[in-house]
Amino acid sequence: MISVVLVPGASGPAGINAIKSLKMANYKGKIVATDSSSLSAGFFMANASEQVPEAENDSFVDRLLKIIKKHNIDALLPTSGFDIYPYSENRKKLAEIGAQAIVSDRDSLEICRDKMLTFEALSSSFEHPFTTMQPERIREFPIIAKPRFGKGSRNVIKIEDEFDLKYVTSKFDDMIFQEYLPGNEYTIDVLSDMNKQPIMAVPRLRIQTKAGVSTKGRIVNDPNTERECMNIAKHIGIRGPCCIQMKESAEHILKIIEINPRFGGGTIFTTLAGANFPAMIIDIINGKDIVKPTVSEITIIRYFEEIVLRSDQRGHSEANLPSTSRYPE
What we know:
globular, 17 strands, Rossmann fold, six-stranded antiparallel sheet, 3 domains, single chain, 329 residues
């Protein structure tokens, strides 16, 4: 039975969402949060917390193994876009000490990380925007330029003409150029089991985003999109959760633009609609039969929530939520 869960990325919305989702499901086990910053909001929501080096640091894996042994971690949830790589590469080593990393294999992660590989893997079977790394292949404007290995919405540029194109190609390296999609944007949360078999998908309209994270969204029931995204997850070989970004073309055709092989920053939207993916993962690992929950078509608006720390709480690994004051975004 899963009695201790590690939630990484405790300073980001995905990690915080996962902790909140587990608490909403009345998870009785222990939640351990990790992050490179001691002032991570998730530290003060979890039962315990541990500061770790950046995932690229040579000492990260050794530190992770010590934390797993110290807290007897049973499962690691994928909420950070950085930690998933060492988790995947060391999945067998982690399993040997009793910790199951709910993360896809490294080749699947690489397809998701590299937007050209994403296009090459999906373009023959799924709706995908025209994508190239060769500016000379561009025949019409506007077009979108974005980093081949980018995260969120950083350095995503709308190019209006040849002048803009020359500027972007002179200023940035390793960019891809993609068909401009003017329609609505959707995130589809998909959950697959440990054998990479999709269980369900929950689409939501991204009404408003900030820094690539949904701040307002509406859950929608769309069986065709749900089926398509489950097929995408299976095609890529996703284990556990992923969130798929899709956007409408001028002809109202939904096309895939990105896959994140982990929980996303808007995972809590799906939880609030009735599908608690973090809790479902615990049930899957525990061998419980999963009954696909009913998902409600709801609209969610997010706002900031402040955590006020006393001077003796800063950097403390176990703390209750202090009283908070709230202001709308």
